[in-house]
Design a protein that fits this description.
Jelly Rolls, 254 residues
């Protein structure tokens, strides 16, 4: 009798073991995906107006200043002063948003407080130091005093009406964004800027592969068939101090 009971108990244990679900071995962790084109593809399309500058620090921006590669003690090119973002002009470089954007309207209020000079807003920025080991791949909207609204193509390209008239080139030179190309596209107006020391209001509208630029209410440039339609936004340090009191991005008008 005891043997029968023992045999039955063993049989029950064996049956339970064979019926119990087997736990599968854990899957190996997925490898981390490198940032790159995917980050560009996830560009933000603004649905409300937000400031790109918080008035306190440079959160949301990163500086790319080649001089810092060899001299970590080099002064900062971009600072916050009296609630304004200031490009000191030197060392040369760029301040670039950490986020990427597409299909937006960007408001920029700026002034050359001390003297006329050079600066720019770069849109659709991607690969850093793509030209001359300095300029990121992008389309520059020029702020150079007297030429605000010019386009400069930096390893990208854009087309405008009257290309031969508005895009000076030498014999044999092609339109493009490379180092030997005709990269500058002249703006449409004169005298749209305020005198040195006064605030200018620039509006940049990026809609699909078109760009429109206004300076103080004047339409100063318009292009289409741009080779990029998204990217970061960058400000330049290009030799002259410039103050920014408004950097606001928002949705396109309907």
């Amino acid at each position: 009798m005891n043997r029968r009971i023992l045999s039955a108990a063993l049989a029950s244990v064996l049956a339970a073991c064979t019926q119990a679900p087997q736990e599968s071995a854990p899957k190996p962790a997925e490898p981390a995906q490198a940032a790159g084109p995917a980050a560009q593809a996830e560009a933000i399309v603004p649905d409300k107006s937000v400031s790109l500058f918080n008035g306190k620090d440079l959160a949301g921006w990163k500086a790319d200043v080649p001089e810092k590669d060899k001299n970590a003690a080099a002064p900062d090119s971009f600072i916050v002063r009296d609630g304004r973002l200031v490009s000191l002009g030197t060392p040369l470089g760029h301040l670039i948003t950490t986020a990427t954007y597409r299909d937006y309207r960007l408001h920029v209020e700026y002034r050359f407080a001390g003297k006329a000079g050079n600066c720019g807003v770069l849109v659709h920025s991607s690969k850093p130091r793509a030209l001359g080991n300095m300029f990121p791949q992008s389309l520059e909207v020029q702020m150079f005093s007297g030429n605000a609204g010019d386009f400069w193509c930096i390893q990208e390209n854009i087309e405008v009406p009257d290309m031969e008239k508005r895009r000076p080139r030498k014999e044999g030179q092609k339109f493009g964004g490379g180092p030997g190309d005709a990269r500058r596209i002249l703006n449409l107006t004169d005298n749209s800027e305020k005198p040195v020391g006064e605030w200018n209001h620039m509006v940049i509208e990026a809609r699909a592969r078109t760009l429109k630029v206004w300076v103080n209410g004047d339409l100063v440039n318009e292009g289409s068939n741009c080779t990029a339609d998204r990217g970061a936004i960058a400000l330049q340090a290009e030799g002259t101090e410039v103050e920014f009191r408004r950097l606001e991005i928002g949705p396109l008008p309907k």
